[in-house]
């Protein structure tokens, strides 16, 4: 998947003052014949490093940028910019620059217009840096007058907004306790609990807590644990906010016999994360995710997402799935006034019961499963709460 490209270098020996002056002029002139995303000594990066660099450049250069994405083939960050001067600066910092038509302000204004004039249940939108447009998804429930309103609003922003259809229905991915999802495995009453296989890595397993992707139960709902964290030195875990709203207390078994913890903070809608403090303050809560094959993966840090990043998701209904980040700062309208902002959009599949489960890249935590459409048979779109935002808001630490 990783194809490295080597830039051929040619050395010209130029003598004389006139030639020196000519060379200086060439440096100052724009590269008129170059592709707008031509690399000027770009650095090869990991997806994590690309997200860090992209966030930094976006913050530093402000309105002169218009999003970024990670090109997996070349392993480089591609930064959208609005002028050649900024492009040169971006290239000097080790990224590829692409001069685009729509500025960050124009994309943001388009998103605001959609929120004001076409906030329709069953819709979602995010800025797509690959197309330099705001892409709106309308699920199968958006029909008739609602669909006409959406298309009319989008048509008024032609060149900035694109409307696409989703075959499924946008909904949060919590499940009924013990419910089965489609063709997935049955987590029910035998869901992993403390000390069970794939649920911890303690020396004897007796005091081990569940890890990311394991089933949790509360208020008649089944969700998935996201990431074990610490808060002021005490063990806790992150999951989805709509799960945290469903119950104040959570257990590791359907019958409710094995208590896990109590919700310390829950945010939904607007955001979608909850912090649950373990009832046993001495509980061993490994910073790991369940790979659903009897093994776990250690999580050592949290990372920002970037479009193009390859990710995996673990959940108590569908197990382990993988895919790619397709959008950032997404807004999704689940209906009933439940509108969530700032989400990560992906093509990773998920189903009811996977809510709150971890999305990760290597050993880095990236997101918490919120909701979406489709399933793991036909595919669909899934949205995730960024872990970095949840950690910042709660003060919890990971890894």
UniProtKB/TrEMBL annotation:
Cystine crosslinks: 223-243, 349-376
Listed Pfam families: Pro_Al_protease, Trypsin
Domain Peptidase S1: 236-390
Compositionally biased region (Gly residues): 194-203
UniProt keyword annotation of Protease present: yes
Gene3D superfamilies for the chain: Trypsin-like serine proteases
GO cellular component, one term: extracellular region
PROSITE patterns per UniProt: TAT
Gene Ontology molecular functions: serine-type endopeptidase activity
Region described as Disordered: 157-209
Active site as annotated: 242, 272, 355
Peptidase S1A alpha-lytic prodomain domain span: 102-156
Record keyword Glycoprotein present: no
SUPFAM superfamilies in alphabetical order: Trypsin-like serine proteases (SSF50494)
GO BP annotation list: proteolysis
Record key words, sorted: Disulfide bond, Hydrolase, Protease, Serine protease, Signal, Zymogen
Similarity section: Belongs to the peptidase S1 family.
Protein's UniProt name: S1 family peptidase
Organism: Streptomyces daliensis
